[in-house]
Amino acid sequence: MATIDLTQEDGDAPAPAPAVTDLTQDSDDEPPAKRAKAATPDLAQLRRGAPPAPAARSLQLRTHPNQLRDLWRGDVTREGQTLPVVAFYSHRGSSPHRCFSNFHQGAFDFTLPASCDGATPRTVRVGCGEQAIMLSKAALFRDAVRFDAIAAPGKRPEDYKALGRRVQGFDGGAWDGVVVDVAIAVVSQKFASDPVLKQVLLATGNAVLAEAAPQDAIWGIGHGASHANTQEL
Q1: Which of 174, 186, 181, 185 lies closest to 12 in space, CA to CA?
Q2: What is the pLDDT of residues 55-106, one digit of tens each?
Q3: Hey, is 209 helix, strand or coil?
Q4: Which helix or strand (DSSP H or E) is residue 186 part of?
Q5: Quick one: DSSP state of residue 207?
Q6: Domain extents for the chain?
Q7: Which of 29, 201, 223, 230 has its CA 20 to 30 A from that of 1?
Q8: CA 86 to CA 222: how far, in whole Å?
Q9: Are 140 and 174 in contact (CB under 8 A)?
Q10: Which residue ranges does the record assign to the NADAR domain (predicted)?
Q11: What pTM, to 2 d.p., does this model score?
Q12: What tens digit of pLDDT does each residue of 24-38 get?
């Protein structure tokens, strides 16, 4: 059973980031596996077998989800080059890139990021990235009941997502303040833990990984993989 630390100093809660008027987001949306190298493990470190850095180049400062699109566009055109885009979406099918979805099932030991360390145990064996994200949410808002339910193995990814939407005390501003850190932690630990997944990621080279989600223009690109603008994000 989880133990939730209910004490919280004034400085513990992340301040909501300034609003961005030209982009909208359902505050309870969860990030699919990240689509930019800014939110994936450092490739050189992965090749050496070293632990991934806590945050990659573009996201070393606290980043709000609404700021991600500009960061990704900068990655695509950095240094005067136009980088290729690898689009992915579903965890089903035969594409090797299906593992980029947080619904892709594969067990790994997940350690909660420091921004969501309100629960023990800090490290939990999870079956998919979605489970790790929802654990982080329950820990952040100190919901021990939901934390224990999410930590239990054997559920489908969509079941973990549904449990995460029931976390008590949820605050969209607080979640937005840490969700990029959570995304980095989940993706870094997932790909560093599995040699097969690591090689799939490394094989993308310098490409930008784009979640081709027609209904999501924050964590995804807002249209499908076959859309004419996919290579432009």
Answers
A1: 174
A2: 343 444 455 666 666 655 555 555 555 677 777 766 665 677 888 889 999 9
A3: strand
A4: helix 172-193
A5: P
A6: 28-232
A7: 29
A8: 15
A9: yes
A10: 88-229
A11: 0.67
A12: 333 344 444 443 333
